[in-house]
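If your schedule permits, I should be very grateful for your opinion on a structural question. The matter concerns a single protein, recorded as an amino acid sequence and a row of backbone structure tokens. Could you please explain, in whatever detail you think fit, how the structure tokens follow from the sequence? I set the record out below, with my sincere thanks for your time.

——
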Amino acid sequence: MMEVIPKQFWEGVEQFNSGQFYACHDTLEALWMEASEPDKTFYQGVLQIAVGLYHFGNQNWRGAAILLGEGNNRLRRYPEVYSGIDVDELLDKSLTVLKTIQMAKPEELALLKLGEDENLPLPKIVRSA
């Protein structure tokens, strides 16, 4: 676990949690490019989930499923809490979105409203207590 969490990471978290997924990607990509492991893969997992949610908002279901899957696969390698983030919470909510996309019929996909249905909550990055 990193000792000093960069300010840009928390900016990316704020962008993510306010639904600014493309901006979050840009912020975390800059960190990801310069980071070393294990932080590098962690940043990449979070930014892939952000891009997956961005694709979801644009009804790019294939892109959303691919990026959500890749991001979740990367974050699964981390403990329950990493860098002050509740990883399990993020994984739980983003996997719900992924499974919903995978199981929905094509005609149902356009009706999905992320965060407006209790069965499809908007994933958030939650700080661990």
Remarks:
- The mean pLDDT is 92.
